[in-house]
Every structure is written in structure tokens, then in C-alpha cells.
Design a protein that fits this description.
With about 120 residues, the chain is an alpha+beta fold. About 20% of the residues lie in helices and about 45% in strands. The chain is globular, with a radius of gyration of 14 Å. The two termini are about 15 Å apart.
Length: about 120
Amino acid sequence: MTVRRVVPNIRSEAVRESREFYGLLGFEEVMNHGWIMTLASPSSPAAQISVMGEDRTAPVTPDLSVEVDDVDAAYAVVLESGAEIVHPLQDEEWGVRRFFVRDPSGRVVNVLGHR
């Protein structure tokens, strides 16, 4: 399994203001689903930040997203470890397959792969 990117998720009710603020640092909007917006650096596209209200299909808002090349393998490894699954593995309508797991410090990690 290979990690493709890691993105911090900032929970915010001030999405427009956040886009403007991070724009001051050179970030540009690359995705916006209404409830989650991702900003990226044009010169280094893997440098990203997501700003979101509440997650559309999960019971909690994740703190961090980790994109992997094989989300099913990641799920099997995490499940085998006994870590707490916060949101089950599922396909989402916006083209990702994902699950949420709680890390040892209590942070919720969104582990995903693009279909």
C-alpha cells in the first residue's frame, strides 16, 4: 500500500473567509462540493488543505485525510489491528471509497482511495 497524499481537514463555518485567508498564502480552490472545499498550491499541487462544515455522510468530521492506492488493503490492515473504525468502508457518490479510523491520540483519520 502506498500513501498518495495527506490533507489536513479544518472544520469551519467560515468557508468563504477561509478560502480568502489561505489565498493570501498562495492556495487556490481546486474542489468544492458545498460542504467540503479543497485548496491547493498551484506550484505544488500535492500541498493541500480542506475546509469543511459537517461531513455529508459520516457521523463526525475527520481531522486528516490520507489517500492511499489500495483503500481495501488499508481497511483490512487497520481492522486487523483492532483500531476503532468510526465510519465503515463505503463508496461515496463523489467518486471515493473511504473509511474513518481513530488514531491513538483520538484524531479521526479519513482513509480514502479514488475509484
